[in-house]
Amino acid sequence: MHALRFLTLVWPGLPWLWLRGSLSGLVLALAFAVSLDIAILTTFIWPALLELELILGLWTAVTAIWLVSTVSATAAFPPPLVTPRRDEADALFARVRDAYLARDWLLAESRLGELLNLAPTDGEAQLLHATLLRRTGRTAAARKALDKLSRSDSGRGWQAEIAAELSRLDQTGTAGADAGPGVLPLRDESSGRPPRSAAA
């Protein structure tokens, strides 16, 4: 499976689009597709449409886009989403949870930033971050974070909680900070992670 991830390097933008759902990856993949289609059409279907110098320039541009994007994607290839949990991340999550339960939003957000830098694919931490954004009245940012999480592989095990959080956003609007707490369920033991819980 690890080797199959590197097949995404064949198409510009695909590593970030396929592995992370990145919008910039989609734009690059579409731009490359359009330029390649134009090059093929003007070379093989309608060769009289452009002069030979323009066709060669078009193929040179297509090749340059492919080379530059492949080299840059190789240098910054997205790491695998499934990474083993580290004790440091779990300890940091406990501190985040404690600050959140104490309603110390500033400390909780600061520690969540540290946690998401350490473990950017931690779906539980991303969900807690979206909840914290809702509780502090930043509903637009909370909705954006939930949408991003729901589209990612990290959010696959959290779809019910994401839907519940979106429902809370719809119900409370900008008064989300006054909503009563709920409890996130314990993580399934089959995931290989130690169970954690936090107030929603």
The CATH homologous superfamily of the largest domain is named: Tetratricopeptide repeat domain
Listing every helix as H and every strand as E from the N terminus to the C terminus, the arrangement reads HHHHHHHHH
Overall mean pLDDT stands at 81
Coarse morphology: elongated
Kindly identify the CATH topology of the largest domain: Serine Threonine Protein Phosphatase 5, Tetratricopeptide repeat
Q: In angstroms, what is the radius of gyration?
A: 22 Å
Beta-strand residue fraction: under 5%
Portion of residues within helices: 55-70%
CATH architecture of the largest domain: Alpha Horseshoe
Structural class: mainly alpha
- Sheet of most strands: none
Counted beta strands: 0
CATH class wording of the largest domain: Mainly Alpha
The multimeric state of the shown protein is single chain
Residue stretches low in confidence (pLDDT < 50, at least 5 long) are: 174-192
**Terminal Cα separation, in Å?**
35 Å
Number of domains: 2
Number of continuous helical runs: 9
In short:
The protein is 64% helix and 0% strand. It has helices at residues 2-5, 14-20, 23-45, 52-75, 87-101, 105-118, 123-135, 139-151, 159-172.
Can you give a write-up of this model?
The protein is mainly alpha-helical. The protein folds into two domains: 2-75, no CATH class; 87-191, Alpha Horseshoe (Serine Threonine Protein Phosphatase 5, Tetratricopeptide repeat), CATH 1.25.40. It is built from nine helices and no strands. The chain has helices at 2-5, 14-20, 23-45, 52-75, 87-101, 105-118, 123-135, 139-151, 159-172. Helix 6 runs antiparallel to helix 7.
